[in-house]
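look at this stuff:

>
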Amino acid sequence: MALPKNPKVDLKLKYRRTFEIGLVLALLVLIFAFKYFPRVEGEKMKIEAPQELVDVEDIVNTKQETAPPPPPKPPIPIEAPSDEVLEDVELSETELDVNEQVAAPPPPPAEEEEVAPQFFVAVEEMPEPIGGIEAIQKRIVYPEIAKRAGVQGRVFVKAFVDENGNVIKAEIIKGIGAGCDEAAIKAVMATKFKPGRQRGKPVKVQVSIPILFKLK
């Protein structure tokens, strides 16, 4: 069995009084310190730094130029109503007979279509120049431009020969230029041909003729 404590030596009974006494002493010390001790001021720190000058430029406000408005449309002319009243015109009787029968106009003359002559490409007997190719070569006049430029070669001419052996048209199939093509056509057109024949009858035939241009 625990023995009861002596109230004279029991510290728990004195906690409240001891706390109050300590709190009062602490307040008195704090008041005494603030009242009688000198005030300590801290030194102010001065920071010196070079100052930079900044130039501030004034920004000019730009003006947006607007395009001029388009010109106004011209007014549409409106015909003003006329105050004058048109008078009625009475038609007198004419000598025109309405019941008379009129003959229809004659039809226009029909245009005759020109039919291009047809030339055979291949027949039983092809046309040949009278005197052979040598006869055409003798008619060749060598152009001076071709002589100076040294142009040589072979020109192929397509000749259209009719039933009488005459060349009615000539075309260049392959030329060499320098005036040789024109000289070849001129020689072929001046040559008489033996007409081509089909089933024993002379017909129109187109034939290809080679002409040689060679410098001596």
